[in-house]
Design brief:
The protein is mainly alpha-helical. Helices cover 61% and strands 4% of the residues. It contains 6 helices and 2 strands. It is elongated. The protein starts with a helix and ends in a 10-residue tail after the last helix.
Length: 149
Amino acid sequence: MYSLQARFLAFRPVHHSAPATLLIALLAVTSFLVFRLSNSEKNAFRTDPDAPRVRHLRYITTESGSRLLVSGWWGMARHINYTGDWFYGLAQCLATGFETPMTYFFSAYFLVLLLHRNYRDECKCRAKYKKDWVRYCELVPYLFIPYLI
């Protein structure tokens, strides 16, 4: 499933226009950066919140002592890393063109997987952080895409 797009292209090369190729490449690079930079920021903050790279980030401290980021990548959306991850997969599917929906199975499957993971994460955090999670959701109202979802 994860290599279906590459296999498809190996046997049925797709030639996109230059603008289409540029847009697909831009989507892939941008979404990869969103995924990596957001996860890197969270890891750096967890490792050393006083490090120069992350000390400017705002956060709320929960009753349990956890720190929830409300600025930087994590202030834009609660699961911004999922967004980058999914769009990166979509870019790989777009590279195969539109000859068959089969090459888009990964994107559909991955979307369902991430939506379910998001649901589980939200339930777990609501139970763990209680009123602090409500406050956090007010400060970071978007799940995936800032100002949209």
